[in-house]
Amino acid sequence: MKKRDIRILLVDDEPDILEIIGYNLSGEGYNVSTAGNGIEAIAKAKKERPHLVILDVMMPEMDGIEACEQLRKIPELSNTVITFLTARGEDYSQVAGFDAGADDYITKPIKPKVLISKVKALLRRLKDQQEPEESVVKVGDITINRDEYKIIQKGNEIILPRKEFELLSLLASRPGKVFKREEILDKVWGNEVIVGGRTIDVHIRKLREKIGDEHFNTVKGVGYKFVL
Predict the structure, then answer these.
(1) Among 20, 8, 99, residue whose Cα is nearest residue 57
(2) Helix 64-71, helix 38-48: angle, nearest 10
(3) Rounded distance, CA 219 to CA 7, Å?
(4) Which tens digits make up the pLDDT trace of 181-220?
(5) C-alpha 79, offset from chain centre
(6) Most confident among 42-51, 82-91, 105-114, 118-127 (mean pLDDT)
(7) Confidence at 224, pLDDT banded by 50, 70, 90
(8) Would you say the pTM of this structure is higher than 0.85?
(9) Which side of the chain, N or C, has fewer Cβ within a 10 Å radius?
(10) 86 class by beta-carbon count within 10 Å (0-12 exposed, 13-18 middle, 19+ buried)
(11) Sheet harboring 216-219: ordered strands across?
């Protein structure tokens, strides 16, 4: 998909933010539209079906959290990537954002070049959703062979127990995406009985020891993400 075909909806009640960020995204070649509050954002999203929504949290009439919840109820927008862009960096605000259905969380202020990089990473997730899962995936210096349950890192084969392998495979499938604990439990353990509430934490600790601590980030109160 060409950049001019990628629709981005930028939502913020500050005109300066809309102008600056909109200018930089448009300069990259993206098709950008704007909205000043949550109600306007929902109306535009229904009409334009954006691929990415960049959503402020604190807005009049309808805040970003509620707007995100409403957007996630629209079937036509089920594959739309939503990220919050806000000056609020408190943990409880991030948790509320993820619980509302957001894919990511970007804190202001942010340099234009860094924002563009973030946007490109978010849009790669959209591409990942559209492409079938491959049996062999290379992520950074790690090669994951899902058919053979094999991990190769820097030429060395690493043997992982099944659940550690499946957890790594899930997190590495979308680098940078924060996987909530509930989603991890559902996709890796499913209906299996889990002994203890810290099962995920234990498996993450073991992966950090075997794969490298730098590849796993903890998002307090939410879950984990894989980083390159």
Answers:
(1) 99
(2) 30
(3) 29
(4) 888 887 887 655 555 558 899 999 999 999 999 999 999 8
(5) 12
(6) 42-51
(7) very high
(8) no
(9) N
(10) buried
(11) 179-180, 223-226, 216-219
For residue 134, the model assigns a pLDDT of 67
Alpha carbon 93 to chain centroid, angstroms: 16
Helices (H) and strands (E) in the chain, counts: 8, 12
Task: Let me know: does 171 contact 226? Beta carbons within 8 Å.
Answer: yes
The whole-number pLDDT of residue 216 equals 96
Mean pLDDT within 41-69: 93
Long-range contacts of 156-160, Cβ-Cβ distance < 8 Å, separation of 24 or more: 158/210, 158/211, 160/207, 160/210
Please give the mean pLDDT across all residues of the chain. 87
Spell out where 57-160 has E strands. 81-86, 104-107, 136-139, 142-145, 150-153, 156-158
- 137 strand-pairing partners: 144
Q: Assign residue 101 a region (left: φ > 0; alpha: ψ between -120 and 50; beta: otherwise).
A: left
Amino acid at 66: E
| Cβ-Cβ contacts under 8 Å for 26 (sequence gap 6 or more) | 32
Give CA separation, 88 vs 57, 59, 109, 133, 155, in Å. 8, 12, 10, 35, 42
Contact (CB, 8 A) for 216 and 224: yes
| Angle at the Cα of 180 from the Cα atoms of 64 and 88, rounded to 5 degrees | 35
Q: pLDDT of 14-35, one tens digit each? A: 999 999 999 999 999 999 999 9
- Look at the alpha carbons of 110, 32, 68, 15 in this order and tell me if their dihedral is positive or negative: positive
